Amino acid sequence: MDMLIQVQDLSKIYNPGENEVRALDHVSLEIDRGEFVAIIGHSGSGKSTLMNMLGCLDVPTSGQYYLNGQDVSVLTDNELSDIRNREIGFIFQGFNLIANLTAIENVELPLIYRGIGKRQRHELAVEALNLVGLSHRMDHKPSQMSGGQQQRVAIARAVAAKPPVILADEPTGNLDSKSSADILKMLKELHRTGRTVILITHDNDIAAQVKRVIRIKDGYVEADYFNKSEECVENEKAE
Ligand SMILES: Nc1ncnc2c1ncn2[C@@H]1O[C@H](COP(=O)(O)OP(=O)(O)OP(=O)(O)O)[C@@H](O)[C@H]1O
Ligand SMILES: [Mg+2]
After folding, report:
1. CA–CA gap between residue 96 and residue 171 (Å, rounded)
2. Closest residue (by CA) to atom 12 of ligand 1?
3. Residue 135 pLDDT > 90, yes or no?
4. pLDDT-derived band of residue 229, with 50, 70 and 90 as boundaries?
């Protein structure tokens, strides 16, 4: 398989000096294209910090990050935002939907930044909202939808342009177990259709259903293993 992500000796120190926090401490890991990886760890262990680095949303204090074989540290801000737009769909825990836009307008918004024309934008947004089962809520604003529905809009927004990589930070963190299961099913489907999915979660039951698990503790990789649970084996068989 070809390597998508290669991180070597990556550290992130917030507030260097007196109150410094070593949020990432010499992390090294590799992720191939097409993998489905869960990143787990206690609150404050550095998961979101790692996601911000992997998603080129923030820069490390030291260490190397190669994305598609390209050293990210030499890229300009414009080049980084190009990579984010082209390669990565982000799903955040807090949904980050825009309150006064409808579901479909929220999904279309990032497509504007990708330079996609109006008609195609609309088609892609409709397709993505269908995928997440919200074709009947396209004209609803976030306040007129449940938490699970809002999260599904956020997923539709992340996947509408069909980015090859999905980075999801606790997408099920605020949801009930049924909605969580639905979201996980959608992520599995995106993986099945060729996406690389990196899923941050607190939920061990969810992590148990993902093939590879990376556990972070105090900013370092405590464990990196492949699940052999029943559910995972079942998923593999189903594929
Ligand atoms: N901008 C910041 N400035 C200073 N410290 C920060 C900043 N962001 C995060 N931290 C600290 O870095 C550490 C790692 O934070 P991070 O948000 O990556 O944890 P996390 O594993 O995502 O936790 P959670 O599960 O609660 O979301 C924490 O100790 C946190 O307090
Ligand atoms: Mg976090």
Report:
1. 11
2. 23
3. yes
4. low
Q: Domain containing 109 — which CATH number?
A: 3.40.50.300
Structural domain for 138, as ranges = 3-238
Helix (H, G, I), strand (E, B) or coil at 228: coil
- pLDDT for 153: 95
**pTM confidence score:** 0.91
46 lines ligand 1 (CB under 6 A): yes
**Atom of ligand 1 minimally distant from the CA of 93:** 27
Q: Which atom of ligand 1 is nearest to the CA of 219?
A: 14
Ligand 1 atom closest to the CA of 170, numbered from 1: 27
12, 13, 15, 21, best to mutate for ligand 1 pocket (most atoms within 8 Å of CB): 21
Long-range contact pairs involving 206-213 (C-beta distance under 8 Å, separation at least 24) = 206/38, 206/172, 206/180, 207/38, 207/40, 208/232, 209/184, 209/235, 210/36, 210/37, 210/38, 211/35, 211/36, 211/37, 211/235, 211/236, 212/35, 212/36, 212/37, 212/38, 213/37, 213/38, 213/39, 213/40
DSSP three-state, residue 2: coil
Report how far ligand 2's centroid is from the alpha carbon of 60 (Å).
16
Nearest CA to ligand 1 atom 27: 43
- Supply the DSSP symbol for 105: H
Q: Both tokens of residue 171?
A: 């997408």
Asked if residue 220 has pLDDT above 90, the reply is yes
Side-chain-side CA neighbours of 211 within 13 Å: the count stands at 19
What are 212's two structure tokens? 């590879």
Number of domains in the chain: 1
